[in-house]
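Journal club prep — side note

Before the paper discussion, L.F. wants everyone to see what a predicted structure for a comparable chain looks like in token form. Sequence:
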Amino acid sequence: MAARQNAPQAVPSPDADAPDAPAVSISNGLVSAILYLPDPERGYYRATRFDWSGVIADLQAGGHSYFGRWFPTYDPRTHDAISGPVQEFVTGQGFEAAGPGDTFVKIGVGVLRKPAVAARGFATLDIVDGGTWSTRIQPDAVEFIHEVNDPASGYGYRYSKTVALLPGKTQMTLTHRLESTGVHAIDTEMYNHNFFVLDGQPSGPDVQVRVPFTLEAFNVRGDAVQVNGDRIDYLKPIETSVRMQLKGFSSSTADYDIRVENRKTGAGVRVTSDRPLSDMVFWSSPKAICPEAYIHVHAERDQPMTWTTTYDFYALPR
């Protein structure tokens, strides 16, 4: 896999367990963030579940922090050893048609080899070709570009994601463009895991999650959180993890409007998008608060898809 980038505004990795992971700092004067850069040899994240771009190690706004390391043990090839508003493109392109040992494409990762024995959970697979990553770094933004081509499966793409801190606002946008460069169209669900860690505080009764519609929970695992109308409330601290699937949203983009707040510290964040929800899951660990918002992604060779997710950071009235 080739990696090329402009000279970065390099900063030391904030994680002592990954001292060589390349990282850059951006700021608009109101929000500052440290992002890890994709790298096949030294990158902070080298597993095959999540898109390698836009991994945020730390974000500060208005005296509050919003992202950080939430897991106790680090390994770059562990599927969820990652932080920030990271995304997974769920469907491996060409996976179903591929035989054992054949290749398929995972957006944001590269060309992967289908294992001979069906993988369980989020196993890290062999990367046959990681494609080419480019980064364009500005004082208040980083653009990631990933180009992948797999003639064997007929899938390829050019994907760009820009993480930008907007001038004069405590706001961050993730702007995406995905274009098929292969024979086949790209079709998948995509979700942002949103590993929120508000002010370094544990997940618990100080935290509340709100949406603009009445929630219905199903396939619930764990008893530490419950749905109350348009809210998800914590009943007690999380010991291991909780998970639930959610419904109740409409096809309107207005329903993609999620607020996460810590009423003890006063940190709040609002997440919106210009695409409608296609599914929603809530997951939480002892430190991470994760409203997982899904959208449907479809891109053809001559019809690229674009979408933007916006994060507004705010302080609760004291």
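L.F.'s comment for the group: Confidence is low (pLDDT under 50) at residues 1-8. Keep this in mind when we get to the figures.
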